Amino acid sequence: SSMFVFPHKLILKTCGTTTLLWGLRSLLRIAAVEAGFPVHNTPSVDDERAAATPYRVFYSRKNFLYPEKQPTPHRSWLHEVKFLDETFEGGSAYMVGKMNGDHWYLYITSPETTLTPPRTPDEERTPMKPSRHFRIPTGLASAFNGVPESSDETLEILMTDLDPENAKKFYLEHVSAVASARLSSQAQEARDNSVHSLGDLAGSTATIRTASTAESVVDETFDVSSLGSDSDNHGSYTPVSEQLDPASLTTEGHALGTVVSDNCGLSDVYPTSKYPDAKIDAYMFSPCGFSANGIIPAPQKQENDTVTKAGHYFTVHVTPEPHCSYASFETNVPGGQNGRETSEVIEHVVGIFKPGHFSVTLFEAKAANDVATGAARKRFDSLAGYRRIDRIVHDFDDYELVFRYYERE
Amino acid sequence: PFSSSEDTPQLTINHDVAAELDSSSAFEGPEKLLEVWFAPSAESLPSGVKPDGLKSVAADIWVPMLDEVHCKVLSVLKSERVDAYLLSE
User: 20 to 30 Å CA-CA from A332: which of A154, A262, A274, A309?
Assistant: First the structure.
């Protein structure tokens, strides 16, 4: 599972039997109380029911493999929609794709041009009855003097029936063997070169801080790049063995996650040659399973030709067991813009997992819907080795959704 | 030996959680995805909002909310524009 926190929005993507919507009320309250976003459902932010008013909300998922094992309201789309409708005003729910096959669900609220409903004057307010649910207005576009984020597009690839050989790369036993082999090889190389390095398990230039908790960083900071084989660095850093038990490099989830990222090709989806500040945080679960988040702080050209640093991300989650094999890839890195085209990214990701089936959803703000991206969308219509089953376009007020579904030939 | 730009993301690992995980009982791949926007862009936060908006919220404030969702924080990759939390489950 992953969470991405931007100044103006939060993305939460959770796996398995997690109860994502149970956290929604707390999320809205945190946004109000801790970040100061406006509240319209109570007279005061001190009220325990106070919740920030969202500008817009998206909720989506693929159909579940085992809905009966999910906690409510996640057992059915109708229950999820009911929960969301009881929380927000003005939402719309959609099912995209074959009802009797793999399909995808979307719940969306749109910004309004006026406050909805009109605020009740304070003296006319009556206390709300305690309730588990109360509806929160969404929209309120007039409350913000801004314009929708430019280049807002989200690509999601959901893959099932993964190729068994490729799925092996996401089992701890396999990864530990790869890590051990690399460690041995590089230790030998280090000995040959009279270097203290234990090898480039990480291959990353991120600085890792070890901590007893996520909040309390302690003085165990070490530089993963010092694990590398950069000849300029030889002998100029503290030996890794003094900072991290070498044995843990073949068992620790984050160290092994980095091995998997390199070994499966994920690290090359957004290569540092094109995205020099890209960083990946990956974790290998025991006995199997894999998650990774990537941040790509690349410059982004705005509509007025100014350049700002974008908050781009990608995230990957893999469940490799044969009876429920699944992998997802999601990114908001815009295609093109001197980086990789959307079609290249899709081909690369699908090549990592070689799924039997996969869907591609591209959700794109119309402001960013220029000629270049339109051409890119058409180019990924066909993919070697796969037959396209569905292509469905939804034209929303300010977004366009393109859903495609493919099967292996 | 390490040089980086000002915006190099920084990673913090929560070893207490990361050391205890076991995915043996996993059976369901497909995820749920929730995206909640509170403003049209990072540059157009409403008045009264803290300068960094949601990013100003400390990591431990999110923990009870994530407990409700049944997720634990494994690690956090922080950058100037977005913070990425890698979660259990």
Answer: A262
Whole-number Å distance between alpha carbons of B47 and A37: 8
Q: For residue B30, give the nearest of A62, A237, A289 by CB distance.
A: A62
The phi, psi pair for B78, rounded to 5°, reads -100, 140
- pLDDT digits 0-9 by tens, A49-69: 999 999 999 999 999 989 999
Q: Which phi-psi region, left, alpha or beta, contains residue A354 (left: φ > 0; alpha: ψ -120 to 50)? A: left
Is A183:A201 a contact under the CB 8 Å cutoff?
Answer: yes
pLDDT class for A382, splitting at 50, 70, 90? confident
Give the model confidence (pLDDT) of A114-130 as tens digits. 333 334 444 444 433 33
Can you tell me the distance from the alpha carbon of A150 to that of A144, in angstroms, rounded to the nearest whole number? Answer: 16
A69-72, long-range: CB within 8 Å, 24+ apart, which pairs? A69/A17, A69/B27, A69/B28, A70/A17, A70/B28, A71/A17, A71/A19
pLDDT, mean over chain A: 79
Q: Calculate the alpha carbon distances from B52 to A43, A138, B1, B60 in Å.
A: 25, 21, 31, 17
How close does chain A come to B62, measured CA to CA in Å? 8
On the question of pLDDT at A258 being above 90, the answer is yes
Q: Which residue has the tokens 């999320």?
A: A27
- Please tell me the distance from the alpha carbon of residue A267 to that of residue A280, in angstroms, as a whole number: 8
More confident residue, A145 or B75: B75
Q: Which residues pair with A60 in a beta bridge?
A: A106, B33
Q: Burial code of B49-65, b = ≥16 C-beta within 10 A, e = fewer?
A: beebbbbebebeebbeb
Percentages helix, strand, coil for chain B, rounded to the nearest 5?
A: 20, 25, 55
Beta strands in A164-263 (DSSP E): 207-211, 222-223
Work out the pLDDT band at A207, boundaries 50, 70, 90.
very low
The question of ipTM being above 0.85 is answered as yes
Per-residue CA distances from B73 to B19, B61, B67, B89 (Å): 12, 12, 10, 10
On whether the CB atoms of residues A7 and A308 are closer than 8 A, the answer is no
Q: Min CA distance, A192 vs chain B (Å)?
A: 22
